[in-house]
């Protein structure tokens, strides 16, 4: 392939492309709607195993021991006499130090519910749950500066807690577990996720924890709060989220946005049954000091399934491990998220408009030949704010086109990188600022940063098999441009480019940002072929006018024009179809097909021929319908220079006849002796071409050819080189 076509985008094709995009978007929308209606096999189900909005009043009086009315909650409190208690009333759960007119005292109260009674699939042994466990609730206490959880007696600290799970209802002084707490020595008093050993009073008045909330719960004082805690059994990872709902009342903790306060891995009490969950309040003797809770719910995600099989068998959804056992195609629009390991093996998989998203802890494994590849859809990586290497295993059905992002300086913030690979030339080519790069490979990658991904430096590696037009691999470069167009640039710092077997590996260091990438080169080094992007046709009163542009050419003898599958014109006869050999200059071509009929539809394609005879057919087609009457062509007498010239042993001679009549075309040697009669007959007006075969002539040298018809006579020279 030695022809390099300029990529002047064609308005017609642009519109067509847009229609295709819109059609596909509509198809995706329909598929998306369908996928919402149909149960997705790979989707982890989330089950609510316990919930209480406390909207069923159990009376305005406070319970000081045992079950609160008919609710799921029971009261435990300090065994020495004081006035702690709790009630479910006014649509919330309230814990108080002042349940009655009896004297208040230093003490505590725990309103618990037995976790063994939660619905399936909850397991009080947290690590035995099938998937992520989530606790959601509202919490608030009345003190502007709660003091903590030191043992009572002798202390008198105010502190509030939501006990995620514990082993004893005597939670102040005994049992182990996890809690969300508020209250410590001095200020501020951040919300904290803590574990405790031997009762919650073991926390004392410290301000530490497994996770200590930042803003907006770094010092909520007596504001209302929404809180969520998640626990992932497979990794023993906890994550705390929260929201400050202000001073007037609770907001729904399950809606809106809660801020993440980070994650922690802890398995101290995840392998023992934590049999009680509940609300806790401790404090002293001030009048009517309360803590309040609402909208308590616990959910458990079902196990995330694995998938092993053909690409055609996988359904949209989230999976743990995915292993493909063959190549093939997704069902159209299938979207797959992989949390564990994606084993592509060495297969080629057509994503068929769908996608694969790699979760934060996922791993991509290619086959032993690293040939695993996907195409026809998006491949997305979750990128942490840390050093990581992300392989985008793109390719075609036949060839690998892997692109790898390896961070050498971590991103400032993590996010996602969504990649696509397009196995055709990038549209809107612009080489204005990248000299000497004047050509790109006929394919490109698009990487889009999302989810806040920013910053960092990365090494970009392209591994591509069977890249056409590579003659001088060390001169290949990775080029980048704004998504959708604009000038290409050589991005980052070139490190190396090598060709091993059929595999090109190009590495650039110190790259930043993401958009569109391709392989570029000076076409004199590597005439990376660009397929025909600009090939236009239009109907004129004289026929179908065709035009196309090359940005550079190499070894190009010329073009043939194929109409409805048949060659109708060749560079051998038509000078306007002759190529420029090797050049990096832009060349415009035009050809008029006058031999057309009104009412017919014609489809044209271009074929190029190298000087060595290699033939290249271009995929692009131009189809035109001739609706207007075509004026009969008007011809003038003409005799053109033979082609090729010099020649051996054949050459072509083209001529035109204006008026019908006898036409003679004869060849003479320099002594005037006739050596061949090529035409000697009556011909109607038109363009003609004839081939002269000089194989029977023995001597090299100059010959003369003469055309005679009517009053027209013209003589030309040609050179036979034996
Ligand atoms: Ca409520
Ligand atoms: Ca009282
Ligand atoms: Ca405090």
How would you explain this protein's 3D organization?
With 722 residues, the protein is mainly beta. The protein folds into 5 domains: 1-38 and 534-633, Immunoglobulin-like (Sandwich); 49-301, Jelly Rolls (Sandwich); 305-376, no CATH class; 389-525, no CATH class; 638-720, Macroglobulin (MG2) domain (Immunoglobulin-like, Sandwich). The protein contains 1 helix and 54 strands. The strands form 9 sheets. Strands 19, 22, 25, 28, 31, 32, 33, 35, 36 and 39 form a 10-stranded mixed beta sheet that branches. The radius of gyration is 40 Å and the shape is rod-shaped. The structure holds calcium ion (3 copies). One calcium ion is lined by residues 53-55, 91-92, 294-295.
Brief rundown of the structure:
This protein has 722 residues and is mainly β. It has one helix and 54 strands. The protein binds calcium ion (3 copies).
Q: What is the distance, rounded to the nearest whole angstrom, between the alpha carbons of the first and last residues?
A: 30 Å
Whole-number average pLDDT? 90
Q: Roughly how many Å is the radius of gyration?
A: 40 Å
* Continuous helix count: 1
The amount of helix comes to under 10%
The CATH class designation of the largest domain is Mainly Beta
What is the number of domains? 5
Largest sheet, strands/sense/barrel: 10 strands, mixed
Work out the strand percent: over 45%
Number of strands: 54
Small molecules (ligands, ions, cofactors) in the structure: calcium ion
CATH architecture of the largest domain: Sandwich
Globular, elongated, flat, extended or rod-shaped: what is the shape? Answer: rod-shaped
The third-level CATH topology of the largest domain is Jelly Rolls
Helices and strands: which structural class?
Answer: mainly beta
Uncertain segments of ≥5 residues (pLDDT<50)?
A: 1-42
